[in-house]
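Weekly sync, protein design subgroup
Attendees: M.S., D.O., the rotation student, P.L. (late)

Item 1: inverse folding check
M.S. brought a backbone from last month's batch and wanted to see whether the design step gives back something sensible before we order anything. D.O. pointed out we never logged the input encoding, so this time it goes straight into the notes. Structure tokens as presented (329 positions):
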């Protein structure tokens, strides 16, 4: 929820200063909206100033395509231009034309832009669409392809790379539904992709992302990349505690949604609320059926006193107490 303690942020900056990373991404820059969101949903100037003063990395932020227009993007970004080195926009492949005037406005601010074209598993075999992306090369520094569903394989990454103008600097952002994040990222690098993404312990929505510590360890072995493993271990330990609390990472429903290129938002809701078994979730994804109205309503007033008993193992563990309570009442 874009909310991190100052202690964690300070440690993150200190540790990443010692790691071979070019950019660190801080969060979103959004217009004012009602409701509570964490500070990294807005990245006000105080937040950005802290990173600029204390981090030796280039600073990246994201814009939400749904929240920006060519009329408001300058007012959102201009105050932050002295703090930010790269702005990224997650781009719906169906609305490429809409982003061009916005991208031109950002270019006028002299801030580097990355356009992250989503849902790559849906168009990785469409050579005509891939070729059409070349027109974006003139308005952004990096043209990313994003494995939104965690559905891609290395050959998909290679196919996109070979069909994009080699003069365009490309990027790859993988999700880890099928735990292909590392293989796909290494394939991207071998295919000439210039920038790739990862997160500490794979932190991210649902199935999460490629773990930075895994990528750095592999590149240390394969490419002799110098890595400060003491700093890496320190920040990984802190994020591991967060992971235990928030439970990102792949699971059977995420794997199934990944292999079939299904959006994971509904899967996330089902998995985290635990209303349904994994088997039910997968059946729903496969058939498109809904189980929202499986259970009948009842009116407690017609039945007198009612005891509502939830599911789970605790019912079995406490059945004697439940029966005693029922008899006494």
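Designed sequence read out in the meeting:
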């Amino acid at each position: 929820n874009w909310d991190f303690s100052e202690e964690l942020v300070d440690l993150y900056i200190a540790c990443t200063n010692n790691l071979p990373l070019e950019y660190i991404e801080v969060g979103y820059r959004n217009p004012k909206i009602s409701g509570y969101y964490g500070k990294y949903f807005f990245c006000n100037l105080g937040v950005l100033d802290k990173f600029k003063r204390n981090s030796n990395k280039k600073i990246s932020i994201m814009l939400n395509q749904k929240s920006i227009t060519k009329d408001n993007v300058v007012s959102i970004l201009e105050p932050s231009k002295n703090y930010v080195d790269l702005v990224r926009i997650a781009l719906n492949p169906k609305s490429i034309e809409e982003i061009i005037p916005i991208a031109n406005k950002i270019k006028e601010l002299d801030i580097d832009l990355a356009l992250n074209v989503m849902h790559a598993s849906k168009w990785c075999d469409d050579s005509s669409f891939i070729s059409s992306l070349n027109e974006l090369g003139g308005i952004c520094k990096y043209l990313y392809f994003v494995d939104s569903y965690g559905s891609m394989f290395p050959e998909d990454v290679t196919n996109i790379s070979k069909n994009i103008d080699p003069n365009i600097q490309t990027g790859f952002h993988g999700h880890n539904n099928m735990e292909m994040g590392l293989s796909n990222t290494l394939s991207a690098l071998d295919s000439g992709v210039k920038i790739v993404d990862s997160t500490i312990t794979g932190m991210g929505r649902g199935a999460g992302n490629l773990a930075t510590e895994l990528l750095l360890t592999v590149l240390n072995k394969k490419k002799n990349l110098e890595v400060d493993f003491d700093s890496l271990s320190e920040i990984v330990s802190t994020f591991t505690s967060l992971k235990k609390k928030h439970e990102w990472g792949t699971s059977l429903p995420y794997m199934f949604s990944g292999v079939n290129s299904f959006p994971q938002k509904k899967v996330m809701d089902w998995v985290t609320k635990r209303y349904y078994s994994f088997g039910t979730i997968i059946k729903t994804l496969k058939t498109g059926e809904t189980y929202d109205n499986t259970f009948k309503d009842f009116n407690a007033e017609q039945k007198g006193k009612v005891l509502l008993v939830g599911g789970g193992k605790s019912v079995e563990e406490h059945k004697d107490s439940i029966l005693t309570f029922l008899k006494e009442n």
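Discussion: The radius of gyration is 23 Å. The longest helix spans residues 229-246.
Action: P.L. to compare against the previous round before Friday.
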